[in-house]
């Protein structure tokens, strides 16, 4: 079985046929499946989609049970948690539906952790970190694009001279560089390459 475009989060089961791992979808299994939009809904109250998975959380005054259901709880109602609560050894704690969120100073609401600035995010050298509410993702650095090459996805240099996305002067030559490009005025012209006279 050969899949020309690859199966990012799945396995190749036939000619250009991918079987996606749970939580992923698309022809090449490169898209996150939004489980929160499925019928029947996976969570009783609220659902937060995460990369390749999802998290359930409850309305204020309810407690999240191990099976994902929400049980009415007077203690939770009293604590007034934004995303429901859980009881640990008789102590009530407010919950945050994602590891990328942390309890705020009031102990009831959840605030975003910027993984990109705290250094918690792990992106390979040719990718940059983009923070999202409750998580982050890695995007190709500027001047690079995501391509499927020799069995895997990688960020490869965009040749601005070929794609015509450079801003070189009409009387300049475009020279491609890793992640960027340079402009050099042609013979008989002088200037920066963006301006030639």
From TrEMBL:
Its main location: secreted. Residues 32-71, 112-150, 157-195 form the EGF-like domain. Keywords: Calcium, Cell adhesion, Developmental protein, Differentiation, Disulfide bond, EGF-like domain, Extracellular matrix, Repeat, Secreted, Signal. It holds the Pfam family EGF_CA. GO terms for molecular function: calcium ion binding. Coiled coil: none annotated. The keyword Secreted applies. One of its GO terms (biological process) is cell differentiation. It is found in: Secreted, Extracellular space, Extracellular matrix. It comes from the Eukaryota. SUPFAM superfamilies: EGF/Laminin, Growth factor receptor domain. PROSITE patterns: ASX_HYDROXYL, EGF_2, EGF_3, EGF_CA. InterPro entries: EGF (IPR000742), EGF-like_Ca-bd_dom (IPR001881), EGF-type_Asp/Asn_hydroxyl_site (IPR000152), EGF_Ca-bd_CS (IPR018097), Growth_fac_rcpt_cys_sf (IPR009030), Nephronectin_domain (IPR052235), NOTCH1_EGF-like (IPR049883). Belongs to the nephronectin family. This is EGFL6 protein. It comes from Chroicocephalus maculipennis (Brown-hooded gull). The gene is Egfl6_0.
């Amino acid at each position: 079985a050969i899949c020309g475009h690859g199966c990012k989060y799945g396995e190749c089961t036939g000619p250009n046929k991918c079987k996606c791992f749970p939580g992923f979808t698309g022809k090449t299994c490169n898209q996150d499946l939004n489980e929160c939009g499925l019928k029947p809904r996976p969570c009783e109250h609220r659902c937060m989609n995460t990369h390749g998975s999802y998290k359930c959380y409850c309305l204020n005054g309810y407690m999240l049970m191990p099976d994902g259901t929400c049980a009415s709880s007077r203690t939770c109602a009293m604590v007034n948690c934004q995303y429901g609560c859980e009881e640990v050894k008789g102590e009530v704690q407010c919950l945050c539906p994602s590891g990328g969120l942390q309890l705020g100073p009031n102990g009831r609401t959840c605030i975003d952790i910027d993984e990109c600035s705290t250094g918690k995010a792990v992106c390979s050298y040719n990718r940059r970190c983009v923070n999202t509410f409750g998580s982050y993702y890695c995007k190709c650095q500027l001047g690079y694009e995501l391509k499927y090459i020799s069995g895997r996805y990688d960020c490869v240099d965009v040749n601005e001279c070929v794609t015509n996305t450079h801003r070189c002067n009409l009387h300049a030559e475009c020279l491609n560089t890793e992640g960027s490009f340079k402009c050099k005025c042609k013979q008989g012209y002088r200037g920066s390459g963006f301006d030639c006279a």
